[in-house]
Amino acid sequence: MFNKVQRYLAIGRVFFKYNLFSLLYNDLGKANRPMEACSTAVDIKKRGNAKKLRLAFEELGPTFVKLGQTMSKRPDLIPHSYIQELGNLQDKVKTLEFIDMRKSFETDCICDTAGGGAEHSSDCYHCNDVLDIFDQFDIKPIASASIGQVYKAVLNGKNVAVKIERPNLIDTISVDLSIIYDLKPLLVKMLGLGKNTDVDVFLQEFGEMLYRELDYRIEAMNIKRFRENFKDVKDVLIPDVYLDYCREKILVMDFVEGTQIKDLVDADPEIRSKYVKLISSSYLKQVYIDGFYHADPHGGNIVVKDGTITFIDFGAVGKIDGDMIRNMLNLFYAMYTKNVDVAADAFLKIGNLTREDVDMHRFKWDLDDLIIKQHYHIGERQSDNYAILALKYNMSLPSEFSTLERALMLIESVCLDIDPNYSLMSEAKPMIAKAMKERYSIKRIAGNLQVEIDEYLELFKHLPAGVNDIIETIQGYRIDKIRGKNSVLGKYRLLDIFSQYIFLSVLIVSSAYLVVKGETGSTLLGFGGFIGAALMGLRSSLHS
Fold first, then answer.
1. Which of 256, 334, 336, 541 shows a CA-CA span of 20 to 30 A to 456?
2. 115 dihedral zone (left: phi>0; alpha: psi -120 to 50; beta)
């Protein structure tokens, strides 16, 4: 409790130092209010206030740095000027000496000493000094951030990078999250959030994301997954990770040699153009084919060497499910082909809106402007235009889309910095074709068919109950009491019920047989289709 009070006081001092309480209410509180006339002076003031908020978050440490970065992905929460500034948040922390970082190596024993055995594992940090586990270990960090520090070492003759989490970090972050939850009513008022904004969901997702980044074992699994996704792509390298040496606060992976892409601005234009195309195509693959992408691809997290690129730092990743991938690909394809109608429908699905929810004439007009900018304003950053459009039409974009949009903005910025002629649309055609081909491949369709058949087979299990319903229906129809026209209606009703169940049964059985037997089941499927068609035809003729 005492630590929480101390932290409250520290946060209060920083907020008063930057006069955040008044600027948050004046600027952020207008985020969801009607648009006001804007002037250069007003815009400069907002940018100045946004910078104050960024500086305050950097001073408050990792929890608030991550909070600001997460808020920068939510155009439905804060104004555009704040989105841009918070997107530039950096970890500005003092480097800890190695003697202080040693505390993070105080892990549980993993040695198998059951039954009185004396065998100790050579990779157990509890039983061995960390400097003895590695062949060499340079105690001077090569990188430092608010969550951890990175050291260079040698393991079994290989150069490795060892990422170590700062000690006692989990305690500080837990206190910060508790305070942020306490301040939730104040934040809602200052941000001017409407009833449609679920702050509880936002804070829950933020807390879960933060705790995932604190567990380096999750990052190790991310690396393994990326290696699997790019195993057949020769120009994109993903470093290996050494799971036996990884713990919750320790990550050991290949040391990546090369030049950070942000330092390549003075290289030969042809070389820069080649790297830009490679970065763009590999990232579109992550998004539209794998559905699993690097969520923080800034210039320091992409390394180039000898015609290859390497992504590093996999603590922040994004995932897109089947429906989102489909809608995103439809949107991207429509933007590429300049089809405003398809783009409008796809974007509305992403925002969970219908045509009745917006003024479609204005919406399509604005979307068409966005498409034109994407195609012809070469050299300008365009990705954040989706957020601006969503904000204009009060569209609440899902967190998956917002996270992806920020990542695409980073990729676009990286590529434009090293090649001013870069255009995402010009690089999109091969990946769109590949994504579409894979989307409608026989393998993908067969997989979807298998899922559908499993559902139908589950329904088929309950057909006896359906048959019992038919019998009860037959008993309910007293044929001997039906006369004239009613006799035809009664017979039609019985045939209608029988035809539905027979057709469904034949379809389920024949489809399942086809999946199991392959082409040999085509005759049965054709026969089943013939019976079903005949029954449906007879039913239709009676109905007419």
1. 541
2. left
